Amino acid sequence: MTFKAPDSLAEQIAHHLAERIIRGDLKPGERIQEQKVTLALNVSRGSVREALLILERRHLIAILPRRGAHVTELTAHKAQSLCTLMGELYILLGNAVALGWQTQVDMAPFLQIQQRLVGSFERQDIRAFVEESFNVMRAAYPFANNPYLQETVENLQPAMNRAYYLALDQRKASMSEYLALFEQLLAAVLARDLVQIRQVLSAYGQRSSSLVIAALADA
Predict the structure, then answer these.
(1) Alpha-carbon distance 120 to 132, whole Å?
(2) CATH 1.20.120.530: which residues of the chain?
(3) Cα-based torsion angle of the residue sequence 155, 158, 159, 162 in order, rounded to the nearest 10 degrees
(4) Element (H, E) at 186
(5) Could you tell me if 156 and 59 are in contact, meaning their C-beta atoms sit under 8 angstroms apart?
(6) I need a surface site. Which of 38, 65, 80, 137 has the fewest CB within 10 A?
(7) What per-residue confidence (pLDDT) applies to 106?
(8) Structurally, what CATH architecture does the domain formed by 76-218 represent?
């Protein structure tokens, strides 16, 4: 495999490994060996080390002295903690969009994402559905104009995607629930209803948590 710009080589390697962790190709507790990754991807060992540090920052792996890098365990407590925190961060982004949009043009990216989410649901394409769900947050970043909030969401989102993918992989019908919640969220944002935004996103966080915990119990 060959990686190219515009992303840095380490970021591309991190993204490649993150996708494997999110899909479950790399299992919890599994060791990620620098040399094997270096040979498999035909990249430098230094770039792999940098990629592993990125993944550690994103809570997908743990790097332990004399034990190397291992895929982190996803427990019920971690899932609940993550979903609770992400729900609050999403509320900040949702409020920023509600208070910041001026014309229908501002909301066009969100409506386009909604259409792509529907298409992913109809195809039962979990990977695309998860990616488009995160694109909602990225579309909200300019409204928040908060680099610290953006960095925090970016670092936590891969772990959230991992949990999200696990839940949807075992319960594909749940995609319809998320679509309904997103429709409610869009309506609340358009109405600038901050109370409803909190209610919808709190429900999203609670539902995500319960689905992930149930999926972990079934795994």
Answers:
(1) 9
(2) 76-218
(3) 180
(4) helix 174-190
(5) yes
(6) 65
(7) 97
(8) Up-down Bundle (1.20)
Q: Given a cut of 90, is residue 122 above it in pLDDT?
A: yes
The per-residue pLDDT for 172 is 57
Q: Is 62 exposed, middle or buried (0-12, 13-18, 19+ CB in 10 A)?
A: middle
Cβ–Cβ contacts within 10 Å for residue 13, how many? 26
CATH of 9-71, one of 3.40.50.300, 1.10.10.10, 3.40.50.720, 1.10.357.10: 1.10.10.10
Q: What is the mean pLDDT of residues 136-151?
A: 96
What number is the average pLDDT over the span 177-203? 95
CB 24 within 8 A of CB 124: no
CA torsion, points 103, 108, 114, 115, in degrees to nearest 10?
A: 140
Signed CA dihedral, 15, 18, 22, 24: sign only:
positive
Residue 169: both structure tokens together: 């992989």
